[in-house]
Design goal:
The protein is mainly beta and 200 residues long. It has three helices and twelve strands. It has helices at residues 64-69, 161-166, 184-199; strands at residues 8-17, 21-27, 40-43, 46-54, 57-63, 80-84, 104-113, 118-123, 137-140, 143-150, 154-159, 177-182. A hairpin with a 2-residue loop joins strand 9 and strand 10. The longest helix is centred in the last third of the chain and has 16 residues, at 184-199. 32% of the residues are buried.
């Protein structure tokens, strides 16, 4: 489990196309410290498994399902990525419960800068809109954010200077894709309520 608090801005150093999958090599001195084979690291909000680890780099295999459902398939050498290690049991939950299971992708629609923050509008797939509510939580490229406004096909988030400086949302522009993970609690509630209706 992750919290959506990005630990560092890493970099893609190699991409190997394996046909129905890809192998990525990524650099991240913070997240690779103490990393071992089989550990999990979230890359732009996608939970990946460490295959190899050497120095400040690690490799991870990405299957076709993940490439199709997320924006990882668009990554190229030199791309910057948000990196986070799983949260430790008993640690502070600084963001919200993030599984690293991307629900879909959105596109940055607009950026409106202010003196000390920035308002970013992001497109929202129709099948995810029911899970997104004003002042609720959403994960964008692995970043735990609070929804400012929620529409049927878009939502907005406010980004503080720290988020702009230390994550991919500081450099992405309108037209760029982002990974979205909605609050898993909302999906569980929906499933439970649907089950109650079927039992009547």
């Amino acid at each position: 489990m992750f919290t959506g608090i990005v630990e560092e801005l890493g970099e893609v150093t190699a991409v190997e196309n394996l046909g129905d999958s890809s192998r990525f090599r990524l650099r991240g001195p913070v997240v690779t410290e103490g990393a071992r084979h089989g550990d999990s690291i979230a890359v732009n909000g996608v939970c990946l498994t460490v295959v190899e680890h050497e120095g400040d780099e690690f490799t991870a295999d990405v299957m076709a399902e993940t490439l199709e459902r997320s924006s990882l398939g668009a990554l190229t050498v030199g791309a910057r990525v948000n990196l986070e290690r799983p949260t430790a049991v008993g640690a502070r939950l600084g963001g919200h419960i993030v599984q690293g299971h991307v629900d879909g992708t959105g596109t940055i629609l607009d950026r409106k800068p202010s003196d000390h923050w920035e308002l970013v509008a992001i497109s929202l797939p129709a099948d995810l809109s029911r899970y997104v509510v004003e002042k609720g939580s959403i994960t964008v490229d692995g970043i735990s954010l609070t929804v400012v406004e929620a529409g049927t096909d878009r939502f907005t988030v406010s980004l503080i200077p720290t988020t702009l400086a230390l994550t991919t949302l500081g450099i992405k522009q309108p037209g760029d894709p982002v990974n979205l993970e909605v609050d898993v609690i909302a999906k569980y509630v929906e499933r439970l309520l649907a089950g109650q209706g079927a039992a009547r």
